[in-house]
Design brief:
Blueprint: H1 10-18, H2 22-43, E1 45-48, E2 55-58, E3 77-78
Antiparallel strand pairs: 1-2, 1-3
């Protein structure tokens, strides 16, 4: 295990002091955030149109430029 210092206000210290295992609760909450971020990353990709350079967030959909003024219809560039 690694250590990380956490600063708490008086109210949050009171809550934390009443918890049986505050450190485990913090780890669990952080891992929930990680799981949500990974799920979003798997579903959402960002693409850039090489013609107009506009970026688009796509969710398992078409890779066609969504800029109505552009009209680019070839494959967009995946932004990594």
């Amino acid at each position: 295990m690694n250590h990380k210092m956490v600063n708490l206000c008086d109210d949050s210290l009171l809550i934390a002091s009443k918890m049986k295992n505050f450190s485990k609760w913090v780890r669990d909450e952080l891992l929930k955030v990680k799981a949500i971020q990974e799920a979003v990353l798997q579903e959402t990709l960002w693409f850039r149109c090489p013609a107009c350079w506009k970026s688009f967030k796509e969710q398992a959909g078409s890779q066609v430029c969504l800029n109505g003024d552009c009209g680019y219809s070839k494959e967009l560039e995946l932004i990594e």
